[in-house]
Write a structure and sequence with these properties.
- This protein is about 40% helix and about 20% strand.
- The protein contains eight helices and seven strands, in the order ααααβαααβαβββββ.
- Helix 3 crosses helix 7.
- The termini are far apart.
Length: about 190
């Protein structure tokens, strides 16, 4: 029995020594659970949403003739006449149109009684206003080569380029104001069809 006890005791000692040695090695070498965790990849920052680009203010060429004229502020009488003649929708159409636009000062040259009578006579007013409109887009460089231009009312305007540009005697004081549906040339006098 003594040999069994000696063997048992030896086995116990060897087992203990082995366990101690294994425990030492395990302490020296960190286990998977004891290893420091690898840093998690940094989250990719989500860019802040970019606000939509502001819509640019429409350029004059993006607006129609009537809008461009209204914004100028010097065509109030012309705008009232166009409305009285029922030509608003026509001049808001696709065109293109060339408008020889008389300023408020040009209308002021007409005696008040005559202007009031003109504004009250829709047929005559329409004839006068359409005499200021040429079909198509005629820029200043194109006007310089013309002697006449046929208007929307069927009559012809006379063009004189010998000293500046005159349309039936009215001086063009500003040219080539572009609009989406044509161009405006500002004149200093209301022209009356013959």
């Amino acid at each position: 029995m003594r040999s069994f006890s000696t063997i048992s005791m030896a086995l116990l000692l060897v087992s203990g020594a082995t366990l101690t040695a294994c425990k030492k090695k395990a302490e020296d070498k960190p286990t998977e659970a004891a290893k420091p965790a690898a840093p998690a990849p940094a989250p990719t920052p989500t860019p802040a949403p970019t606000p939509p680009a502001p819509t640019p203010a429409p350029t004059p060429a993006a607006k129609g003739i009537l809008d461009v004229a209204a914004e100028a502020g010097t065509f109030k009488t012309l705008a009232a006449a166009i409305e009285a003649a029922g030509l608003v929708e026509t001049l808001r159409g696709p065109g293109p149109f060339t408008v020889f636009a008389p300023t408020d000062e040009a209308f002021a040259k007409i005696p008040k009684a005559d202007l009031d009578a003109l504004l009250a006579d829709k047929a005559k007013l329409t004839a006068v206003l359409t005499y200021h409109v040429v079909p198509g887009k005629v820029m200043a460089k194109d006007v310089a080569g013309l002697k006449t231009a046929k208007t929307v009312n069927g009559a012809e305007l006379t063009i004189d380029t010998s000293s500046g540009v005159k349309i039936d005697g009215a001086t063009v004081i500003k040219a080539d104001i572009e609009a989406a549906n044509g161009v405006i040339h500002v004149i200093d006098t209301v022209v009356i069809p013959k």
